[in-house]
Amino acid sequence: MILLFLGLALWAAAHFYKRALPAQRAALGEKGKGFVALAIGLSILLMIFGYRMWDGTFFWGRTSALTGINNLLMVAALYFVSPGPSKGAIFYKMRHPMLTGFSLWAIAHLLVNGDTPSLVLFGGLLVWALAEMVVINRAEPGWTPPQKGSIAKDAMFLVISLVLLAVIGLVHSWLGYNPFG
After folding, report:
1. Is 37 exposed, middle or buried, given 0-12, 13-18 or 19+ CB atoms closer than 10 A?
2. Non-local CB neighbours of 130 within 8 Å, separated by 6+ positions
3. What pLDDT sits at residue 108?
4. What is the arithmetic mean of pLDDT over 106-125?
5. Exposed, middle or buried: residue 56 (CB in 10 Å: 0-12, 13-18, 19+)?
6. In DSSP terms, which residues pair with 114 in a beta bridge?
């Protein structure tokens, strides 16, 4: 349990560091990127081990309907974390497509994982993503959307998202978590 909380805290601290302590981050220069990457890598390991080691209370489980909704949300999440929104014609005015995709990923996982470790992990990451959007909007209020792209780019990244969902589903199945029911 402690490892999971430490992982979440380190994840948030590494991501908020640039905006919370901008002078200290700037003083590190390029080395700062390495430190942040190392902190994020360590946070992921802590979250993985903390999640897998924690046996918590079980509140709900997967149903056919929740599995279907999860998979639809995952297609959207994969699309939003791709370059599609900034290169396409439909969502190019969206300010935070990656954080939106990350939020959808967390919500999708909360739908089908109703145990305490999942609520802490995915709920904590969802709260972080939403807070990150607020912090960015306050720190950088002037934002200009990229130039509008083409529908063809939207379609291309949607197809890539579907292929990625199949690959991720296969990897999940190999690990013993069949996401397709």
Report:
1. exposed
2. 99, 103
3. 97
4. 97
5. middle
6. 60
